[in-house]
Amino acid sequence: MSVPSSTVLCMTAADAVPQRPPWWRTGLLVLGCSFFTVSSGVFSETGQNTEGAAAILLLPLMLGMLVLPMSLLWRHRAPLVVTWIAVAAGVVLPLGASTALVALACLIARRRGPAVWWAAGGVAVTTAVAMVRDVLASSAAASLLQTLARPPDASPNLSVELGWQVPTILAIVLMGLSGGSGLLMRARRASKTAEHLAQAAGREQNRLGDALARQVERERIAREVHDSLGHRLSLLSLHAGALQANTPAGTELRESAELVRDGAGHAMDDLRSLLAVLRQNPDEAAPELSLVDLRGVLDDVVATGEPVSSTVYLEQPETADPALARAVYRIVQEVLTNARKHAPGAPVRLSVTGGPMEGICIDARNPYRGASASAGSRNGLQGVAERAELLDGQIAYGLDEQGRTFRVTVTLPWR
Fold it and tell me: How many domains does the chain have?
């Protein structure tokens, strides 16, 4: 017993990787970084000096204050590039280190390796440069830290002395917050990824369990069919052979026994093909049918002595899809079997026509002899309808010619 080869363990990227954060979180990060970037630019020597040659730097400073925080929109696609852009901008212009710190956290959450450590070193340099630039400002008006530390009644032009331990501790705290946030986000992503993988593995395990259960049921059905029908068909072939051997040649009884023996042999071949399908062993299955083989069905029916008037006209039958050929083959078998069962000895008119342009039309008619005990459950017609539906075809059956004829018409599109 084997699990179907078509059932494979397949997990897509959507199953394994959690979804990106919502848009509002990105909006808050961009707004927060914009606030600190603008504050760093305004409280700087360049931002305060609007006269002389230093005013030339105002334009790139203002452009950087607007553009740099917006680069965080690409922090998921290219976190390393965004981090280095923030590092370079923070070193060249007094834009602070807020954008670089946020970009580093996203980089640590999504990447590993030496490149992350180099980027972390670059962010540390940018943070140190921003602190040194702020501490060494000539007055509180050009320094964010001095503005926060100066007395309320002091002049903005007053220079406030800050110990080196203040910017050092602040830089260490900011780097720690950035790295810690990145590690926390990485742990959360790993946890969500593991959860998604576990859920996907559970779903796949359920699918494999269902496939295995179906295969076990197929094996059981195959054993039952083999033990019951195989045994009976073997006995039928054996008795028909014995009857044929003990009957004089040229008699009608010997010919009938030969037909029964051949029919039992063909039934055994069909049974082996069915068992191969149930056991999903294509190597033992019968070869695919072709519309050219349709003549064999009519020959078998005519050989039994049943009156059949058939018209078969098919264009390019050898090019038909195997699924279409098998459906036509089985439908013709079923309608002839129904006619022989419900109207034994009555003439049957069968027409099979079509081709690649118009599809295939199967039309079978036989005299209607009224409902009888052998009317059956119409499982045969239901099977014909299911075959037609699988190929996007149509079926119509019922009484025709004022109730004197039972007619079955099946139309199938060409494949």
Answer: 3
Among 235, 268, 283, give the residue marking a domain's end: 283
Q: What Cα–Cα distance (Å) separates residue 380 from each residue in 124, 284, 375, 394?
A: 80, 26, 11, 15
The CA-atom distances, in angstroms, between 138 and each of 18, 59, 128, 203, 233 are 49, 22, 18, 66, 107
CATH number reported for the structural domain that contains residue 302 in this entry: 3.30.565.10
DSSP secondary structure code for residue 153 in this structure: T
Is 107 in contact with 123 (CB distance < 8 Å)?
no
Asked if residue 267 and residue 163 are part of one domain, the reply reads no
What region, left, alpha or beta, does residue 174 occupy, with left being phi > 0 and alpha being psi -120 to 50 degrees? alpha
pLDDT higher than threshold 60 for residue 262:
yes
Q: Give the C-alpha separation, 321 to 360, whole Å.
A: 12
d(CA 85, CA 122): 10
Taking the C-alpha atoms of residue 281 and residue 48, their distance in angstroms, rounded to an integer, is 83
Residue 318 counted as domain residue: yes
DSSP state of 3: -
pTM of the model: 0.48
pLDDT at 18 over 70: no
Starting at the edge strand found earlier in the chain, the sheet holding 405-412 runs: 308-314, 348-355, 359-367, 405-412, 394-400
Query: Residue 317 sits in which domain range?
Result: 289-412
Q: Cβ distance 342 to 375 under 8 Å?
A: yes
**What is the separation, in whole angstroms, between the first and last Cα of the chain?**
34
Q: Where is pLDDT greater, at 414 or 164?
A: 414
**335 shares its domain with 377:** yes
**DSSP for 181-216?**
HHHHHHHHHHHHHHHHHHHHHHHHHHHHHHHHHHHH
Give the pLDDT band of residue 11 (cuts 50, 70, 90).
Answer: very low
**% of the chain exceeding 70 in pLDDT:** 81
Asked whether residue 199 falls in the same domain as residue 261, the answer is no
Q: Is residue 271 part of a domain?
A: yes
